[in-house]
Amino acid sequence: MALFPFCKTPAGAVRVTRLQLVLYGFLLSLIIYFLHGRKIGVSVKSPHPYFHAVEMAGGRGMTDMAAVKAAPAQTPVETPWGAPLVWGDTRSSAWRRTKYAQQGIRTGLLALVVGTYAQYIRRFLSSAETYFLPGQMVTYYILTDNPRSLDPSIELGPERELKVVPIAELPGWGRLAQRRMTLLADAIRNPIGSEVEYIFCADVDQEFVAPVGEEIFGDLVATLHPELYGMPRNAFPYEVEEVSSACVEEDEGDYYYTSELYGGLVSEMYKLARACSLLILQDQANGLTARGLEESYLNRYLIDHRPTCVLSPEYSWWDSDLSADVPVQRLVSLGRQCEAFDKEKREQYRC
Predict the structure, then answer these.
(1) 7: enclosing H helix or E strand
(2) Which of 161, 295, 339, 347 is catalytic?
(3) Is 197 a catalytic residue?
(4) Which of 87, 155, 185, 284 is exposed most, by the fewest CB atoms within 10 A?
């Protein structure tokens, strides 16, 4: 007997009952779910601290980001343009670690420490000593408006050194974001460019919690935003104002990258920092502010100059309802984690 027998009218025509319509609709929904692996659509507001800073500063209002968060059927290990997409525990990453470990590479890790962010510096450096390129030669470059925040000096392991680069005071998220790329370009030109081969920039309000090894090396390295990994392209908070230098057209962009960690060869990083700083200055001259501040310009640059190595959300993660599930959390953002907390948890964790 047929699963859903049709009812016949007296004239012999086929008639479908309301119950049958409901059952057909239910079955169709199940088929779509299993074929596409989609989660329920939600409307959320991004907890990105840059966006909050723009709102608090009276910038253009932010709209809620409506998106359907995808559940990837498999973990990709390569980008559409053939660059490695790095997950730390894959065979490919093990091969990359072996390849680079024997080359005696000197690497810089740069962090900007201004104002109240000085509270994070010791945890950041201590965790980096344990997990960032263990066994490699590393120079920490700390750009700070308060060198005394590093007193007393932090004990470092062999082949590790700390260099402090004094900068002028930069209060507030907005001003900091507008100057950060310029400061990076200046620091790379002198002294970084002549001292290390690779430089990685990281927000200081982060903590390394698992090994970050030689698998991260590449000419130009970017990290996937954990809350936007697996999201459809129309969910990415690219700059949409056509008058902005950071504007991204609807047919552009493969991923959305975080500004929590990026790096590469010093020559490539100088090009990136210089180009982004010029775009920011151009918008400033026209009285414009990109919606994601420096992260918007970073994403604009990485669309025009695709990374040669893309790090998975393992290398920039925090606990929120939108963050992708990852096999291992390697670098956790304490600052963005606090943004994802409710008021009670913020007080509990002294955010």
Answers:
(1) strand 7-8
(2) 295
(3) no
(4) 155
